[in-house]
Amino acid sequence: MATALTPIAWQSLSSATASVTFSSIPSSYRDLRLVMQFGYSGSGGTPIVQLNGDTAYNYNYVVMEGNGASTFSSTGNQPGMTLTFRTPPTSATAIVTLDILDYSATDKHKTGLSRYNDAAAWVNATSNRWSSTSAVNSLTITFVSASTFPTGSTFALYGIAG
Amino acid sequence: MYGTLISTQTLATTAASVTFSSIPATYTDLVLVYSGRSSTTNAYITIAFNGDSSSSMRELTGSGTAAASYGPATTANGGWISISTGTTNTFASVNCYIPNYTSTANKAYSVDSVTENNAAAATQRIMAGLWSGTTAVTSIALTAGTSFTAGSMFSLYGLTHF
Predict the structure, then answer these.
(1) What is the biggest distance separating any 2 CA atoms in chain B, rounded to whole angstroms?
(2) A56 vs chain B: nearest CA distance in angstroms?
(3) How far apart are CA B95 and CA B89, in angstroms?
(4) pLDDT digits (tens, 9 = 90+) for B4-16
(5) Most buried pick, A41, B45, B47, B85, via CB within 10 A?
(6) Which residues contact residue A151 at a Cβ distance below 8 angstroms, ignoring those fewer than 6 apart?
(7) B22 touches B140 (CB < 8 A)
(8) Which of A3, A113, A127 best tests the B interface by mutation, with the highest count of B CBs <10 A?
C-alpha cells in the first residue's frame, strides 16, 4: 500500500554530537515531519531546530506542558523552533515529532507543531513560527547552549505529500 | 499519512480488549490510530507491549475550562476514549506513536487523545509513555477500563526510516 509519508533521510548517532543537519531538502513535498528519539549531555541546553542556518532569534513559540504535578505555559522567541525548555533525559528516551507545514512556500512564514515526550519528566505541545518566507531547504537540530545528543539518538525526516 | 497499513480491526460487538499480534519487524516505527467509545463512563485505556502493561506515563490535559497534569502512573497509559453518556454516535480519536520499536533499548512512545463530546465533558490529552522493555515489540494490546463499544476501530501502521 502506498504511503503519503515518505522517508527523506535518517541519522543515528554513533558518538555524542552537538548538532545534526539535514540539508538539500527537496521541495517536492507539502509538509515535513521530523521524528527524534534523543537525550542530552551538557549544561542544560534547550533543544531547538534551526531552519536554513538561521541562528538569530527569529522563531516565536507558544508552549504548554505538564510534569504530572503542575502545568505550565509560556510564549517568547528563541534562536530556533523550540522543542522543550526542560532538561531532556541523559539517555535517548525522549521523543519529539515536529511537523513543519507548507515548508516550501515562499509567501508565508513557516509554522511548526511539535510534541515532546519524556515519560520520566515532562510532556508538552509547542507551536512555533519562523519569521521568514524562504522555502526550507535545511534543518539543524542543536541546543541553545553547549550540549550534545548522546550515542543512540536517532533523527528521521519525512516528506508528506500534498 | 501514517505509513503502511499492517492491520485494522473494527468491532462488530462490545469487546474488553483489542490485540495486534505477530507484528512484523520490517519497519522502524509504529503508528496506532483508534476511534473508540466506552460502554460505560470508564474511559481510560491500558496499553500492553508484548503482554506487559506496566508502561509509565505522564499526561497533560485540557477541558476548555481547566488544565491539569497527571503522573507518573502505570494506569491509563494507552489513551482515553469517549464515555457512554457522551453525545450519541461520538467516538474519541487517539493516535499512538512508537518510534524504534525493534530496538534493544526501552521503548518511548507518545499518545494524543481527544474524547469528543458535544458538552462540557470533553478533553484533549497528550501523554508521554515509556515501556521498560528491551525486546522488539511484537504485540500490542489495548484494554478498556470496561469495554469498547461496537463501531470502535483500530488501525496499526508501519513506518520505515530512509
Answers:
(1) 45
(2) 30
(3) 20
(4) 999 999 999 999 9
(5) B45
(6) A13, A14, A15, A16, A92
(7) no
(8) A3
The predicted structure's pLDDT at residue A2? 45
Which residue is listed with cell 515536529? A98
> Given strand A139-143, what is the order of strands in its sheet?
A20-22, A139-143, A47-51, A81-82
Do residue A37 and residue B106 have CB atoms under 8 angstroms apart? no
The residues, ordered by sequence, that sit 6+ positions from B109 with a Cβ below 8 Å of its Cβ are A95, A117, B55, B96, B97, B98, B99, B129, B130, B131
pLDDT digits (tens), chain A, 162 positions: 445 789 999 999 999 999 999 999 999 999 999 999 999 998 777 999 999 999 999 999 999 999 999 999 999 999 999 999 999 999 999 999 999 999 999 999 999 999 999 999 999 999 999 999 999 999 999 999 889 999 999 999 999 987
Contact residues on chain B for A91, CB-CB shorter than 8 A: 105
**Closest by Cβ to B99, choosing from A3, A35, A121:** A35
* Interface contact B58-A121, CB threshold 8 A: yes
Across the strands, what pairs with A81?
A49
Contact A82, A126 (CB under 8 A): yes
Cell of residue A141, nine digits: 537540530
**pTM beyond 0.80:** yes
Give the residues across from B110 on adjacent strands. Answer: B97, B128
Instruction: List chain A residues with CB under 8 Å of B68.
Output: 66, 71
How far lies B96's CA from each of A41, B19, B128, B156, in Å? 28, 14, 10, 9
